[in-house]
UniProtKB/TrEMBL annotation:
Location of the HTH lacI-type domain: 3-57
Protein's UniProt name: LacI family transcriptional regulator
Keywords (A to Z) from UniProt: DNA-binding, Transcription, Transcription regulation
Organism expressing this protein natively: Rhizobium aquaticum
Pfam families: LacI, Peripla_BP_3
Length: 339
């Protein structure tokens, strides 16, 4: 039996009118009561009916955007591109940072539904999670970016991470590198895992394998620096390091220098993303560029179409997936292996 507002009030230990104010954001609700209401909504899997949404008014012209982080450059650029693209289409964007926390992610689902968003764009840190089913039950379209959400997403917009992994390996092996290591984070990221699988597959096709690998959960310069330095100190034969992201690769460049070695003379370093900083680190970072802003703009286009009920996307999206191409950007951080 479907839960009602009265059920939510009973579970949260408050009144129906207070629950209504919390769900509709139509008046003051104390922070602790709001938390209890959100928990009750999640526990009872409550979703407002389509009729109830219509009774509360027309479209909200608000799109929810859920990201695992906003202090990571990739997601900051992505958020800005999506917000600007939606603004041009007459939508406001409600940005939610989940801090790569599953409980936060589930709570934001309830909050976005209570805000009557017209659609949601999600970059989930955890992949296929059941709490996203609530959007479908409430007839709210969901577009996934950078990683798939399986049956819960109407559409996926992503870069071609698999092709990117192959590009990194082929570039390094063409320069003569055979002892290659890889570092990156967060380890649970779907895009990181796809890149790693592609790297391993391409190395295997050439009769090679990674000489060393370190994946962590903290996607920061200090964490990546520590991983890179440990690999360099423990694997003297390594001549190239693949950074699963530009953050990891830039940290690796610093680690190589601090170990008394040169980039690319002793160790070549390659990254993935092509963040603005990649061109200004010394030496300039060779990287696989993914079209971050284009991913955001395409996601905004797709969610607008889904909200309007249009399902006619371009030819690259006929199966519900828009996979944008990546390209190798050669700079000074990679070079031929020394004899």
């Amino acid at each position: 039996m479907k839960a009602s507002i009265r059920d939510i009030a009973t579970r949260a230990g408050t009144s129906v009118s207070t629950v209504s104010r919390a769900l509709n954001n139509s008046g003051y609700v104390s922070p602790d009561v709001r938390v209890r209401v959100e928990e009750a909504v999640r526990d009872l899997n409550y979703t407002p009916s389509k009729d109830a949404r219509m009774l509360r008014g027309g479209p909200s012209r608000v799109v929810g955007l859920m990201l695992p982080a906003v202090d990571v450059p990739f997601f900051g650029i992505l958020a800005q591109a999506i917000e600007q693209a939606l603004f041009q289409k007459g939508y406001q964007t409600l940005i939610c940072c989940t801090s790569e926390n599953l409980e936060h992610e589930a709570r934001y689902v309830s909050m976005l539904l209570s805000q009557r968003v017209d659609g949601v764009i999600v970059a989930s840190a955890f992949g296929d999670d059941a709490h996203f089913e609530a959007f479908g039950a409430a007839d709210v379209p969901l577009v996934a970016i950078d990683r798939d959400l399986g049956r819960f997403a109407d559409h996926v917009v992503t870069a071609d991470h698999e092709a990117g992994g192959r590009l990194m390996v082929r570039h390094l092996t063409a320069l003569g590198h055979r002892k290659i290591a890889a570092i990156g984070a967060p380890a649970h990221s779907q895009s990181i895992q796809v890149r790693l699988q592609s790297i391993s597959s391409e190395l295997g096709a050439q009769g090679l394998e990674l000489s060393a690998m370190a994946l962590g959960e903290e996607h920061t310069f200090p964490a990546a620096y520590a991983m890179a330095r440990k690999i360099i100190e423990n694997n003297q034969a390594v001549t190239a390091i693949i950074g699963m992201t530009d953050i990891a690769a830039i940290a690796a460049i610093h680690a190589v220098h601090d170990c008394g070695r040169a980039v690319p003379g002793d160790i070549s370093v390659i990254g993935f993303d092509d963040l603005p900083e990649a061109a200004y680190v010394i030496p300039g970072l060779t990287t696989v560029a993914q079209p971050i802003r284009e991913i955001g703009e395409q996601a905004a286009h797709v969610i607008e179409a889904a909200i309007a009920g249009r399902r006619q996307f371009d030819e690259t999206a006929v199966k519900g997936v828009t996979r944008l191409p990546v390209q190798l950007v050669e700079r000074q951080s990679t070079g031929a292996v020394r004899a």
